[in-house]
Amino acid sequence: MTMDTQRFERYMRDPLPIRLGNLSSSLGRLADSVARPERSDMALRMVSECRWFIEWTGPEADPDTAARLAQLQLDLTRWHRELVQASDSSEYRVEVARLARESADRVLDWSGLLAD
Q1: Could you tell me which of 54, 72, 52, 74 has the C-alpha nearest to residue 3?
Q2: Distance between CA atoms of 14 and 82, rounded to whole angstroms?
Q3: Signed CA dihedral, 110, 2, 99, 77: sign only
Q4: What pLDDT is attached to residue 36?
């Protein structure tokens, strides 16, 4: 996994809630791309991007959120491995898309961006 310094600096300029919102958006893009076999390369890139966002964000999150992000990081690692191994399984892709969408919704909730 590699990620350029410029992207890191740009991502880290935002406050934690915005970074979590960006992670949620990336998980949503993952959900959209993983369900389409012709977008396999993009799905794998989105998994990597989400993993980087978690790595960069986790240390600044409260302990509860950091623990949930760590679990999501493990999920993303598993999805990446299994997507590579089962790249032609539409059933598995649909399942990962569902899980990624649910994760996007949870992360957005953790961000507090939608709270009144």
Answers
A1: 52
A2: 32
A3: negative
A4: 83
